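Input record (one chain):
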Amino acid sequence: MSDNDHTIGETRATDSIQLGDSEGTVTVRKLVSKGERLEIDRGDGSVKLDALLLEGLAWQPDGAAVDELLEADTAVAADPVGFTPGQGTDSEPPEPTADDISISNEYAQAFVRAVSTDSGDGIEVVTPGRGTSTTLGVESLRALAGVTDTTVFSVWFKTPFGPEDTPVEGPL
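The corresponding structure, as predicted from the sequence alone:
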């Protein structure tokens, strides 16, 4: 059976990135079945994020904002690789490459790539339509994988165009 052979409705993984630290391994993979999702799997738990949720994640101002939402103390803010917010609406996001994992739907598109920093390995999430990007280390990914109900992320869509402190939404 080739990679292109699959049963209709069957979930299949098409691309993956494996990252590790002293705590263990995290696998990030693209799942396709009636849509595309990025699965973040830490071994004892996983979360599946669609393009809109990845876009919402990429527009967060800092790791503390994500920790507050996850009720994760400082898992994301203290990550040595860090939750590094990227470009905002006034600059260009990094260009996607052929090696990136693309997650898209009719509303959003995100690209995910492996990155290496002086502090360790991580992933970068780039949302070209929104003009944002962020870097997540293994600790951040592990904290995200602990989310059991993705409706917790719905707070990110309180304003439909991004955070209220952006030029599109206006001041807080």
